[in-house]
Amino acid sequence: MEKEVRRKLIHLLSGGVVLILYLFGRDIALLVSFVALIALLVVELVRIDYRVKIGVEELLRKKEKKAFLGATYFLISAVICLSLFPENVAAASLLFITFGDMLAAIVGRYGRHRVFKYKTAEGFLAELLANLVVGYLFVGLVGILMAIIATLVEFFSFRADDNLLVPLLSGSTGALLLWILR
After folding, report:
1. Which of 27, 28, 31, 51 has the highest local Cβ count within 10 Å?
2. Gap between the Cα atoms of 168 and 110, Å rounded
3. Residues 134-158, buried b or exposed e (16+ Cβ, 10 A)?
């Protein structure tokens, strides 16, 4: 299996935060995310500062070899989203990374219409479709705009980590719109 496909299948694990949220509530989901973040930060610091191998080196992108993993940024965004946003907004914004980003990468690998070096029209459309479904299921019509924001942020993010930006920007959009519309 290709390295990128294996990386994206790991994204499915991030959906566990949302599962915990709905099974056990916000407090437990926040606690689990926070503890996982602290543990991962310790591992990351040891991996980066002392060059200790942790068993995932073959899956790392070049930029991750000397910097935090995408999973670390995801957990940072999970803690922030669970702390600040309504549950349905937090869930949708985190699932955009779980499903949208994963499908964009997998479908995009086989896409024929390159838009940027690593981005294809097919990947963009796959992510948009997945995000629209997730957004609508969790937040209704507001989720549609959240999904569009998430997809555009993912598509145009090159330097900043999408695991942090997508949930925070789409979640902020959703929370703000729900607040305005109440």
Report:
1. 31
2. 29
3. bbbebbeebbeebbbbbbbbbbeee
